[in-house]
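User: Study the chain.
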Amino acid sequence: FDSTATVLDPYLQKQMMLLAFRLTKGGNDAADVGSIRPVVLTYKSEKPMIPLLPTAVAANDDMGIRVWVASDHPVYPANYNSLVLNEALIHWFDWRSTYNDVVTAAANEAEDGQGFVTELALSTASYKDAIFSVNDEEWWKNFQERYVKMEPTDSNGFDAIQEASWTVRFWDGWRETVAASVLLPKDVSLDDFGTSPFLYQDQVQVNLTTFLQLLEINVVLPLKHTQDLLNRQPHLTRMYTTMSAWEMTQDPVFDSDELLPQVSNVHTANITVHCNNDVTYWEAQWTIHLSGGGNITGVGRDDWPYLLGDMPATSKVEQLSHMGARDVIRDNQDEILRKLEKGPMNRTSGSNQRYLCVFVGGLLAVASFLFLVFEF
């Protein structure tokens, strides 16, 4: 990019409005947090879009992009590919260790590296109390009524912070609220106070009025607004991808379609453990039977038998459009099944490994002893 102006040209030519923010560091140790509070913008548009072109100026390689859309119907990327992951490359015993790398490889198989995995597309009925529940609402009402009537002394302010911390200390906005409401001794950091506030009860000054106001503005209201959004819309779609700067050549646009199927973020597979008296359950040979077809065979729980590059990272690359239309760009399922049939490569000899069954046990699992589950 020659300049920031060049990046903004496509938006200016379409007479779009630009909104600029200057980021400043806060007081105390708020500058060390490293996170930016969400900014809420309300505007009219035919379809939701993410302005990625300006992001490319300072994007990291394989930067993660997660999109949540609450809408009337399930949502899909209108101008990016839709990616279906090859679950054989995901470490089913430790899915977090491989998931992001598999998504990155899958996105690289999309046209121009532009594609999204639909992680979830479900009814919002399951999230009715997920963000701010009826119990949270009741707690907040009682908390306000109790402390608003109190004298704004340091002691009452400290009691309010300590009580609120039991419920909301891990919620977004809590740290900023405490930082703006408490005057700490010079040798006490915000982290010190947050970890063990009772140790500093007689050393801090607390503005109770400021704390109650900011707690509502920074913590409670954003949660309530988010919950209200989910309650108003019948569907929630979550999509994820990774992209590098050179792949950010067009802004992703999203559309909805009532004919799209639901997508669960809970994935299951049956496992058979081949037991014998010479090994423990965790060291035994196993076979995972994928719900989409194909079996994965391995030994132990640490090393996954398949690595990126052994087979495609996508089972399908599609271009979705309205009324349920699907243009299959690439279908890798047959190739994946052939490679699974051959078995994993022996990394030492370079040949495919074949495992002999000593004893086939029943279906076993991590938790339920019926199937394996991973949820993202």
